[in-house]
C-alpha cells in the first residue's frame, strides 16, 4: 500500500513525476488543482465558489478542498493506494486530512527563481489542460493537439505566481516540517531531466 503525498513549490514538476510514479506503481494520481478545476467545470455551487478564489491566484478554503478530496478518495481505484499532488497546503487542511496517514511524503525541491521561470513561461490548453512551454516556441492562441487554444491561466501570471510562492513559504513549508518530524518526508532535488528526477524519487521510496 502506497499513500504518497507529493509536495513542492509551483513549477517543481509534481504533475509530471506523479504520472510517471503512478504508471510504475499502478496506483492513481490526482492533483488538488485538477480536482478543483473539474469541480468548477461541473458548474456545481462548490465549483463556482472555488472559481472565485482560483481566478485570483488564491487558494480555496479548507472546507472546499476537503469536500472535493473526500469525493475522490471514495472511488474504488484508491483501494491499494494513491499519489496526491499538492495537498495538504496549510495547517487547516493538515488537520482536515488527519483521517489519512501517508506512507511517504515526497518533497521536490527547486529554487524560487526556477519556480517563477517555469510557471510564468507555460501555457495551458483551454480544452484538455495540456501544458506547453513558451521556451519551446509555444505562443498564446496556438492550437493544441486536441484542437483547443493555448491560454495563460489567471493564476500563472508572474504576479500570481509570486503570491502563490509566498503562500507556499508561509503555509505549506510548516506542514512539510511537521511531516518531517514524524519521519514521513523524503526530499528530492528537482533540478535535472525528468528521467533523473524520477530515478531519485524511486530511490527515495526504497
Summarize the structure.
This protein is of the alpha/beta class and 206 residues long.
Give an overview in words:
This protein has 206 residues and is of the alpha/beta class. The model has no long low-confidence stretch (mean pLDDT 91).
Mean pLDDT: 91
Strand-pairing-aware structural class: alpha/beta
Biggest sheet, strands in spatial order?
A: 2-3-1-4-8
- Biggest sheet layout: 5 strands, parallel
Q: Strand-and-helix sequence, N→C?
A: EHEHHHEHEHEEEHEH
CATH topology: Rossmann fold
CATH class: Alpha Beta
According to CATH, the homologous superfamily is P-loop containing nucleotide triphosphate hydrolases
In what range is the share of β-strand residues? 15-25%
Distance between the termini: 13 Å
Radius of gyration: 16 Å
Level-2 CATH architecture: 3-Layer(aba) Sandwich
Q: How is this fold's topology laid out?
A:
Layout: E1 2-7, H1 14-25, E2 29-31, H2 32-42, H3 45-54, H4 62-73, E3 81-85, H5 91-96, E4 104-109, H6 112-120, E5 122-125, E6 131-133, E7 150-151, H7 158-181, E8 185-189, H8 194-205
Parallel strand pairs: 1-3, 1-4, 2-3, 4-8
Antiparallel strand pairs: 5-6, 5-7
Amino acid at each position: 500500500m502506497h499513500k504518497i503525498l507529493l509536495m513542492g513549490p509551483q513549477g517543481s514538476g509534481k504533475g509530471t513525476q506523479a504520472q510517471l510514479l503512478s504508471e510504475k506503481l499502478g496506483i492513481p494520481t490526482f492533483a488538488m488543482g485538477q480536482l478543483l478545476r473539474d469541480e468548477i467545470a461541473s458548474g456545481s455551487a462548490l465549483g463556482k465558489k472555488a472559481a472565485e478564489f482560483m481566478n485570483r491566484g488564491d487558494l480555496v478554503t479548507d472546507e472546499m478542498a476537503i469536500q472535493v478530496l473526500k469525493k475522490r478518495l471514495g472511488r474504488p481505484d484508491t483501494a491499494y493506494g494513491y499519489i496526491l499532488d499538492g495537498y495538504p497546503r496549510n495547517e487547516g487542511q493538515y488537520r482536515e486530512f488527519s483521517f489519512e496517514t501517508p506512507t511517504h511524503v515526497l518533497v521536490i525541491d527547486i529554487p524560487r527563481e526556477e519556480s517563477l521561470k517555469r510557471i510564468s513561461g507555460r501555457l495551458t490548453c483551454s480544452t484538455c489542460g495540456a501544458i506547453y512551454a513558451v521556451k519551446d516556441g509555444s505562443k498564446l492562441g496556438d492550437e493544441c493537439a486536441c484542437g483547443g487554444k493555448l491560454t495563460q491561466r489567471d493564476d500563472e501570471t508572474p504576479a500570481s505566481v509570486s503570491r502563490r510562492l509566498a503562500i507556499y513559504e508561509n503555509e505549506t513549508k510548516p506542514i512539510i516540517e511537521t511531516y518531517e518530524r514524524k519521519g514521513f518526508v523524503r526530499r528530492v532535488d528537482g533540478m535535472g531531466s525528468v528521467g533523473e528526477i524520477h530515478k531519485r524519487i524511486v530511490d527515495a521510496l526504497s
